[in-house]
Each structure stands twice: as C-alpha cells, then as structure tokens.
Amino acid sequence: MATFQQKKKLLQGLLMGEFAYTCPFYATIDITRRCNIQCVGCRYHSPLVTMPSPGNQHIVDISFDLYEKMCHEIRAMGTRTLILMGEGEPFLHPRLFDFISLAKRLGFHITLLTNGTLLNEDSILHLIDSRLDVLKISLWSSSSEEYKRNVPIQNPANFENIIYGLKLLSCLKTKENSYIPSVELYHPINRYNFHTIDAMVDIAYSTGCNTVSFSPFRTRRRELVSLALSLEEENSVRLSLLRIKKRLNSLSINHNIDVTLQRYRIGESVWQKLPCYIGWFHIRLKVDGTILLCDSCDFVMGNLNEGKLSEIWNNQAVRAFRRQTFTCKGLEALGEHCECGFCCYIGDNMRIHKLIKWFLPFLPYGRMN
User: Fold this and answer.
1) What confidence tens digit (pLDDT) does each residue in 93-109 have?
2) How far is CA 159 from the centre of its chain?
C-alpha cells in the first residue's frame, strides 16, 4: 500500500513526464519456470501457446543471491509489498520458505501465488510459521469435470487434492491460532467454466477462504481465442457476478467483482480508452535477473545481475516506455509487443488516471491522441 508521501511523489513524476521520484509500489519476483501442471490458459505451460518468454530460458530457478539482492535493493528504495510467483509453481523451488523468511525479516508484505496442488500438512505449517500474509490459489475449475477440461494432461484427482488442501489450511490456521496467511481464490473465467462461477462461492465458503477474485480470460495474443467468451456469454457472466456479489457480501467474503466488471466494460481494446501507468508503480524480476515493468509486455528494461535496481528504475528504456504508454496512440503503437486486453492492472491504472486526467491536456506527453 502506497503512503501519502509516495503518492505525492508519483504525481510529481507524472507531471514531469518520465522520471519517477518514488519507488515501485509493489514488485513481483519470479521464483521458478518449472511447473507440475499444464493449464490450457497458461501463458507459459499451455500446450496451445507458443509465446516466448523474455530472458535466459536455460535458467529455471532464481538463485538465493539474486533474490536477496532484489529484496535489499527494493527495500532501500521504499517498496514494502512483494508478490512471489513464477512462470511455474513456486512450491517446486527448494528454498521457497527461505525466500519468505528473508522478505518477512526485511518487513515486506508478501503474497504467494500457487496452483494449490502441493498443499499438505508440512507445507501449510511452514507457511503459517513463515508469517506469509496472503496465499493466492489459482483455481480454474469448480469441479473435477471442469478440471479435466482446463488441465487435461494432469491427474484429475488434483482438483480434490486442492480442495482438501484448502480445508486443511483452514483447520491448521485455527489449530495454530493464526489468522494468516489470508487465503484468496483466483478464478479466471473462460468458455469451459463461465456457466458455473457461482460454485466458486460455495468452494470459498466451505474451505474457509477470505477472498474470491475473478478475471476475464486473456487470449494470449489470440492464440487461445477458442477459449474466449462470446459477447452473449460475457453478458451472462456480468449478471452472474452481480448476483454473486450480493452473496459474497452477505458471507463477509472479500472480492474484486467491481474491478472485474470494469474490465469487462472496457473490454479487450484497453489501449483505445486509457493510458497505462504501470511503468510508474510496478516492476518484475525474472529468474535470470531480467527486469520487466509488465509481464504482458516483452520489453526488457535491464538485468539486475548487471546493475542496481535504483538505476534501472529510471534508465532510458524505462523512461521511454513511460512516455509511450502515456497516450492511447503510444500504446497502440506497441502492437504485438504487449498483450493489453482485459488488463489486470486496470484498477491501479484507473485510480491514477482519475488523478492525472485533469492535467493531461497540459502535459508534453499526456494528450490523449
């Protein structure tokens, strides 16, 4: 969460045009490229997707030294929020809990993303002991049958294992008298599961989850367009989400339905309607040291093995990216380099845009054309 002073410095940079006077509000660190399942909608491991990933593909796990360097440098810059994830499954990294422990000692708020298949008593107790703040489980399916369609190559029993793991997590938190990690179910909506999204509420309630978050399906630069919803199906989903919102509120389960509906309203052609400000508030470290501003764009901004993060944060490549994404015309020119459809950062972008839009006509890079 950004402080008032950080927001003030963010506005200062936006008004100047390209130099950030504040740190990234949060950072994403990739843990591993390895994964134990192949979700059809995954950018990295789907058998249907051929999109290349930036960086050295021969390096599959982040080293502890590189991770430690990132944590210390971004902490010195002022960032307090880390998201640990990866092109694969973080629980496959043998030093995952060392990563969490280091980040907690440095005072970070940490969210860990996982597919949930490796949750067991031992790993859950380690999570509780590590004081992880949020555990976010990506769950594409609300039944074993849906799981077979979304993860067709793997063991269909994985779905039941995930549900068992969620229930076990809730029980062990109670036993250990711990309210953390807070548990969030993350549910991308595609053609295989859009008609049963109500069932995610049942799963969240029965397994003791704190939050349910939804996401429109992203077609990975049209490679997965066969899994996308039709306009009629999207309208059906919107009605379902409005209905689900009331139930979630009554159950005191947190959700992101307002932002999800906003993403559907804006649609895939985000670049035609809104500038992008991600270059001002987020940074991502890949396992080999590659630095990106947004993982949906393949523009490499530098490598942490070759320089300091504070220098990369305002180097020429980053500043050029900020200038270009300040306008809809600039965003459109990025073309095949970025997958902006149903942008997952739309909530952050909208909050910043509400503040800066009044100044845009007077800024050198900010005219919406």
Assistant:
1) 999 999 999 999 999 99
2) 22
- From the DSSP assignment, how many helices (H) and strands (E) are in the chain? 13, 10
State the virtual CA torsion across 292, 293, 297, 303 in degrees, nearest 10: -20
Report d(CA 363, CA 162) in Å as an integer: 50
For residues 205 and 188, give the distance between their C-alpha atoms in angstroms, rounded to a whole number: 18
Burial class of residue 281 (count of CB atoms within 10 Å of its CB; 0-12, 13-18, 19+): buried
**Phi, psi of 111, rounded to the nearest 5 degrees:** -115, 130
Q: Which of 276, 346, 287, 322 is nearest to 53 (CA)?
A: 287
CA-CA distance, 277 to 137, in Å (whole number)?
27
DSSP assignment of 184-207: EEEEEE-TTTGGGTHHHHHHHHHH
CA distance 303 to 51: 21
Which one-letter DSSP state was computed for residue 153?
T
- Asked if the bond preceding 52 is cis, omega within 30° of 0, the reply is no
Closest by CA to 274, choosing from 356, 198, 192, is 356
Which has the closest alpha carbon to 278: 10, 78, 54?
A: 10
The single-letter DSSP state of residue 338 is B
Q: Which of 5, 6, 49, 46 is nearest to 25 (CA)?
A: 6
Judge whether 263 and 343 are in contact, CB under 8 Å.
yes
DSSP code at position 61: B
Q: Quick: pLDDT tens for 18-54.
A: 899 999 999 999 999 998 888 877 788 777 776 677 8
Q: Give the amino acid at 64.
A: F
Q: How confident is the model at residue 343 (pLDDT cuts 50, 70, 90)?
A: confident
User: How far apart (Å, rounded) are the C-alpha atoms in residues 216 and 229?
Assistant: 9
Would you say 337 and 276 are in contact if contact means Cβ atoms under 8 Å apart?
no
Residue 6 has pLDDT above 90, yes or no: no
